[in-house]
Design a protein that fits this description.
Ig-like_fold, hydrolase activity, hydrolyzing O-glycosyl compounds, glycosidase, Immunoglobulin-like, 5 domains, Ig-like_GH2, hydrolase, Jelly Rolls, eight-stranded parallel sheet, TIM Barrel, 817 residues, 11 helices, alpha+beta
């Protein structure tokens, strides 16, 4: 499976980037945090030791974000302001009179581009693609004596990015995610012939029966010199690369988008999550003896949101099993590499995802190409998110970003929904909050989307006073987290479903602190009022004040969240009217509005941590959504359980096998059959009596004659603890120059306090370096303990160090390394 996925992806990447004309500019960059006094400071001659040698620039590779680590620094607000990048390029365009372009796949958030001291382009918006034509500026600078004298035949390029707070930009700084700065997506040097295709629009459709496919192709030319006549050739190839149709014609040059050709494909191989068949459209533009080739992948599929009913794909009901994604990762923030993006999307597919909402902005072309090749349906949206509605420049940015998103991702068969906004009922950025004006602008965006692309649906999430405007609506239902209890999920969903023609539930779930587990995870539910609905309201996300809710009063354990997810998934199997739902989110991500969370500045609702470490919830989804045989005992990250000596304890196994047998310390506790409606764990649960001390648990299941097993070892503690009284700090392991240290919280009798949730702060002095600011439970120097313990790693650097831990009300402790 992985090998096939990698092969598909590499093929698509080659087709789109056309390596002979495009070069990723990843190496030999310098970065300066902050602003310059003027552009000359970036290009003036510098001698070591002279005043011109400061400010100091650092060497970086692209993609790169200003906020690679400070977005989760527990002691700082993340940096928002300008930053500069510079490099020197060797430019040799092979085309006579060709265009030399810098193609930005995304840069945050306002960007200016200079060749030497000449500004050649600027762009507002951190998420759409754009191009700077540097042809003329390069040719002009070649005539400058400094081209050879100072720059040795290279072209100096300087780029200013700026993510400063700006109320007249989207997204709002009130949003629950960082608005990152920098060249955090790939930047490409492109050589194009004198005339080329700026865009190719390939509209592929098919009837419900899949008997006849229609393909309409149009293009927009890049022809700044105004060449009069061009030859256009179009080839269509099936998923195996066989030519199935072609067209060519000489045309008078045109401006704007021109419809070129329509053709039919009989009995096309349909695109679906199970069989993501992709056709290739190859468009050649020939002028003055030079050819520009543009290749796109397309897919034939038919989808429908049935009025007051489910979702249909290619004539059959498909339950959308979804999640969400932010561009955010440990150690790099938004600057994820192609390999990291691929790993994330493959993990989603392995979890069983067939749908994703990209929150809350246009994302990398790499993500969309992977959705196409993996078979993941997509809701993609513009970042009109929270704050209200600004002035005309604010609206123009939204219009431009919507237009760019639709045009740039128009050909992806994975996309079924264009999102107009998110939580637009959330005020705060302007003194005026006018629902009527927000409705009028929502209507404008909705109409614009349908003009640009009549083939897809429009949608928003959580803005009830606009729900009648868009095609598909998602209310805010957080049963068992921000409101209500999770057993109300189906009832509340049906109530909301009945209010609109087309319902899709995106965003549900709850936070879990990785490595924190509970013997009584549902205790907080007894405090929560029921029968009041489960829609999130103002203030519910706060950890302070208001009515009782699990998000504030619960234990944030993995144990609770797996129960919540388990209930939702088993209920979704009994909701024939449901189009689908999308869990929020797949991966923990950084946010400036949650400084008080167990990992500060992290939204911890993911089923994997920010570094792809799987939480227990990942396997609950797998047990419902996948067919590849799996079996998983809950508690791989739960080293110590607790209770009385003879107290029965539940062991849960999440599996998609028909039957599982459980063994405790080598003794069979019997076989149980899986029944998805037998909550929890689909009936695969056993009440057991642990031995004090070490216990070995093994689960065994079979499918098609093959045996599948999982095994863990857990300690069982019967000693009861008093309140936290002290800490101990110890080195746990060392490998490849990296030491792992662990702090434990004990009571006055040296008994481990297994429910302790103290904040602890790690420190270090000496030669080593804390591996922190990762936004993970084991990669933050300030973190809440999970079951009375916390860990962090230290790069020793072949030296000596002293590590420390402090916590309010407890004496600090130290360990030499």
């Amino acid at each position: 499976m992985r090998k096939l996925i990698l092969t598909l992806f590499c093929s698509i990447l080659f087709l789109n980037l056309q390596a002979q004309q495009t070069q990723r500019l990843t190496q030999s960059w310098e970065y300066l945090k902050g602003d310059l006094g003027g552009i000359y400071e970036a290009i003036r001659p510098v001698k070591a030791g002279n005043p011109e040698s400061v400010p100091l620039w650092e060497n970086v590779n692209l993609p790169h974000s200003f906020n690679a680590t400070d977005g989760v620094d527990p002691d700082l607000n993340y940096y928002q302001g300008p930053g500069w990048y510079r490099t020197q390029l060797t430019i040799n365009n092979p085309y006579k009179n060709g265009r030399t372009l810098l193609h930005f796949e995304g840069a945050g958030q306002k960007t200016q581009v200079y060749i030497y001291d000449v500004k050649v382009a600027e762009h507002i918006g951190g998420y759409d693609e754009w191009t700077a034509d540097i042809t003329a500026a390069v040719e002009t600078f070649r005539k400058n004596p400094l081209f050879q004298k100072q720059f040795k035949g290279k072209i100096p390029v300087e780029i200013r990015c700026d993510n400063s707070r700006d109320l007249e930009m989207i997204p709002s700084d009130l949003s629950d995610f960082n608005i990152y700065g920098g060249l955090y997506r790939y930047l490409n040097l492109v050589y194009a012939p004198q005339v080329s295709a700026e865009k190719v629009f390939a509209n592929a459709s098919v009837d419900v029966k899949g008997a006849l496919g229609q393909l309409k192709i149009g293009t927009r030319l890049l022809n700044p010199d105004g060449i009069d006549t061009v030859m256009v050739k179009i080839l269509v190839k099936d998923p195996q690369g066989k030519l199935i149709s072609s067209w060519n014609k000489e045309l008078k040059a045109f401006y704007g988008t021109k419809d070129l050709w329509e053709t039919t494909v009989k009995n096309p191989k349909l695109w679906s999550p199970e069989n993501p068949n992709l056709y290739t459209v190859e468009t050649s533009i020939i002028a003055n003896g030079e050819t520009a080739v543009h290749k796109e992948k397309i897919g034939f599929r038919n989808f429908e949101f049935v009025k007051k009913g489910p979702f249909m794909l290619n004539g059959k009901r498909l339950l959308l099993r979804g999640t969400h994604r932010h561009e955010d990762h440990a150690g790099v923030a938004a600057a994820m590499t192609e390999d990291q993006i691929r790993e994330e999307m493959v993990l989603m597919k392995e979890m069983g995802v067939n749908f994703i909402r990209l929150g809350h902005y246009q994302q990398s072309r790499i993500v969309l190409e992977l959705c196409d090749s993996l078979g993941i349906l997509v809701w993609e949206e513009i970042p009109w998110c929270r704050g209200g509605l600004g002035g005309e420049s604010y609206k123009n940015q939204a219009r431009t970003m919507l237009t760019n998103m639709v045009e740039q991702h128009y050909n992806h068969p994975s996309i079924i929904i264009w999102g107009m906004g998110n939580e637009n009922d959330w005020p705060g950025d302007f003194s005026e909050f006018d629902q009527h004006k927000i409705r009028e602008f929502m209507k404008e965006l909705n109409d614009l989307s349908h003009r640009l692309d009549p083939s897809r649906k429009t949608a928003i999430r959580r803005c009830d006073f606009c729900k009648d405007i868009v095609d598909v609506y998602s209310p805010s239902i957080w049963a068992g987290w921000y409101r209500g209890i999770y057993t109300e999920y189906k009832e509340v969903s049906k109530m909301e479903f009945d209010k609109v023609d087309h319902f899709l539930h995106v965003e549900w779930g709850g936070d879990s602190h990785a490595g924190r587990h509970s013997e009584n995870p549902d205790n907080a539910l007894s405090q929560v009022k029921t029968g009041k609905g489960a829609d999130e309201r103002a203030g519910d996300a706060s950890l302070f004040g208001g009515s009782a809710r699990v998000s504030k009063d619960g234990d944030w354990s993995e144990s609770y969240v797996v129960n919540l997810i388990d209930w939702h998934l088993k209920e979704q199997e009994t909701m024939p009217w449901l189009t689908g739902a999308a869990y929020w989110p797949f991966k923990d991500f950084s946010t400036p509005v949650r400084p008080d969370n167990p990992v500060p500045y992290m939204n911890q609702k993911g089923v994997v941590e920010r570094d792809f470490t799987k939480k227990e919830a990942f396997y609950v989804f797998q047990s419902y959504w996948t067919t590849a045989p799996m079996v998983h005992i809950y508690g791989h990250s739960w080293p110590v359980r607790w209770g009385a000596a003879d107290e029965p304890k539940m062991i849960k196994v999440y599996a998609n096998l028909d039957e599982v047998e459980l063994f405790l310390n080598g003794k069979s506790l019997g076989k149980k059959k899986r029944d998805s409606q037998d909550f929890p764990a689909a009936g695969l649960r056993w009440m057991v009596t642990f031995n004090e001390g070490s216990n070995t648990i093994k689960a065994v299941g079979k499918k098609d004659g093959k045996v599948f097993t999982d095994e863990i070892t857990q300690e069982y503690q019967t000693a009861k603890w008093d309140k936290p009284a002290k800490m101990i700090l110890e080195k746990v392991s060392e490998k490849d120059g990296v030491a792992l240290i662990r702090v434990k919280i004990l009571d006055k009798n040296n008994i481990l306090c297994l429910d302790a949730q103290n904040y602890v702060t790690f420190g270090l002095t000496g030669d080593g370096k804390l591996i922190d600011d990762l936004g993970t439970a084991r990669g933050s120097r300030k973190v809440q303990t999970g079951n009375g313990r916390a860990e962090i790693s230290i790069k020793l650097n072949n030296g000596k160090s002293v590590a420390s831990v402090k916590a309010d009300g407890l004496a600090s402790v130290f360990v030499e390394l």
